[in-house]
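ok here's Nucleoside-diphosphate-sugar epimerase:
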Amino acid sequence: MARVVVTGGSGKLGRAVVRDLAAHGWDVVNVDTAPPPADAPGSWTRVDLTDLGQVTEALTGIDDRYAGVDAVVHLAAIPAPGLRPSGATFANNVVATHHVFDAARRAGIRRVVWASSETLLGLPFDVPPPYVPVDEEYPVRPESTYSMGKAVEEEMARHFARWQPGATIVGLRFSNVMDVEDYARFPSFEDDPASRRWNLWGYIDARDGAQAVRRALTADVTGFEAFVIANADTVMTTPNERLLAEHFPDVLVRGDVTGTGTLLSIEKARRLLGYEPEHSWRDHVS
Ligand SMILES: NC(=O)c1ccc[n+]([C@@H]2O[C@H](COP(=O)([O-])OP(=O)(O)OC[C@H]3O[C@@H](n4cnc5c(N)ncnc54)[C@H](O)[C@@H]3O)[C@@H](O)[C@H]2O)c1
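and the structure:
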């Protein structure tokens, strides 16, 4: 059984990832300052990821719990701007990610998958995107300190991958993470489309986010790669043509924007990871 350390496994996305990886045969170790739910599979150790000593131990083995780690999924972070003062968000997230990359390299771990963010695409799009659907092909445009931290992490990943030839470091630029309970409020977005303009009406079901993580752990990619990870549809029933005409009238349309298909392109993830969303909010709300 291959062993994977999941950081932030007690969080919203992490809980789905821990469940999915355990269900697919991984021996899952969750390291997080917060405890997991009582029914979570795998083990949990309280680790502060801003402490390199603790991270190094977590990625090699902790006492009688385990020894040796095959892969790392790094999700722990303060997950949005505004939850903490920006300097505290930057200090926690960027330092933790540095320590995870550094400890993984020292431990000889050759596969790291971590949570980057859709915010790098230029959210909240006060400056409109260069084209739609947005994808990984234009330079990152962080507009907050939280997002700038993710930009720094992607830059660090580029260099850690260069320092460890043959290793794979995958950044998943997740859209806004949703659990099934969140879908009850989706129909209300129809009354106020502007309220979801900030991320081009995108979302990611936590279970599909977990699928993307699982596929990234074994996909045939080497070095640093970033992927936009969203669901196949928008949060709206209003078709994209109407939303774009009203909210982004001057933005170049460069691909398929018909119907309610995602405006956050997942074509690269489909092509290189074999990612294909299996869920939609439409399955849960009538
Ligand atoms: N939630 C979203 O909409 C969203 C969107 C894009 C990207 N992301 C990214 O996905 C990841 C997971 O987000 P989430 O929504 O599950 O967040 P969450 O807050 O629900 O979970 C994050 C977990 O990380 C832990 N953590 C934070 N700092 C830590 C530290 N220094 N040491 C140990 N544990 C620490 C927290 O205790 C928490 O359990 C984050 O990296 C976030 O930036 C989230």
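+1. The chain has a mean pLDDT of 98.
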